[in-house]
Design goal:
49% of the residues lie in helices and 14% in strands. By secondary structure, it is of the alpha/beta class. The strands form four sheets. Strands 4-7-10-3-11 form a five-stranded parallel sheet.
Amino acid sequence: MATIRGGTVTTVPASIDEVAALLDRQGYVADRALATVTFLALRLGRPLFLEGEAGVGKTEIAKAIAQALGRRLIRLQCYEGLDQASAVCDWNFAAQMIAIRSAEAQGGADRQALRAELFTEDYLIERPLLAAMRPQPGGAPVLLIDEIDRTDEPFEAFLLEALSDFQVTIPELGTIRAPEPPIVILTSNRTREIHDALKRRCLYHWVDYPAFDREMAIVQARAPEATESLSREIVAFVQRLRTEDLFKRPGVAETIDWAKCLLALDVIALSPEVIADTLGAILKYQDDIQKIAGSEAARLLNEARAELNQL
């Protein structure tokens, strides 16, 4: 059994059910398959690669694990052009120049000694990957490498060392190895395929849109003020909306946002007018909004209610 102190689990959960319960306490409702692969990643110390559409909860699981285990969450947000300096570390050139000018002003500076002094930890700017290799209070941190598909292949190749041996190499300082491997979670929206060499180092899971019952549980966990009838209408409408030919289908994050917007407007039941007024909470492209607004919203609402009656 995992040890719980002050509401936080202090050791890795000992079973799949414990992982599911741990996530549930953080408001993250995981299905059995996701709970299983998360348990295996924690037990075996393997990176977890989560792929799926945007907004289905890939990033949130890293936050939930960090919160539940009382670990520091270190996030590396990926983008096109991300390089080693931005991911691992950089040198504080401004501070180094000040040190050089100060030594020159004093005169008689030993160039060799000065060079050795300039490339020490005192002048190092720590970035996420290096921070994840350092000891942290409460245990190894959770390293979230978010939206890895936004980077390019050279950066993927660079990550192989970090994910295989949990170490990074800094030319001026040498190799820094994590005393305890971080809990690594990578996410991808699959805007491009990730190389097999990187995936082989991870446990893989495709995070799909949830079924009705699980999405209901998610909404009730994240927007508990909503009545059950309103939550059912929200989830049924969004699930029906996902069957339409849209540029970007709404994810679970949009379902939660919409529920909170409707609560802020004191809505107790959906109507075509309310849907039209709040479509910007669930659809993020004008073409999609124009397509659903008006009579289409009424049709989808009627179909969603008909499906609810059959449940």
